[in-house]
Write the structure tokens for this entry.
Amino acid sequence: MSNSELSTQDWTLADLPIGVSARVVALDANRHTSLAGHGIRPGVIVEVENDAPFGGPRIVNLGFARLAIARAVALTIHVRLAPADAADGSR
């Protein structure tokens, strides 16, 4: 798969590779309010920093914040890879 194909592919936050920045494009309607309260909403850039061991939460950077997001919740957050120059953008 080429880089241009990867950049247009939609992912869930649960599947996003570590160290890759992505823009949130959609949230599960049932979790929208609680996620927005933590700053996760369509348009923001997130980056998976790491995974907790034994299937634990994903550690996500969101601007200057660091969040632990359960994998079940991460499956409900849809993202699209962000261009390299957008990494410091809308957070």
In short: The chain has a mean pLDDT of 84. The first strand starts at residue 10 and ends at 12.
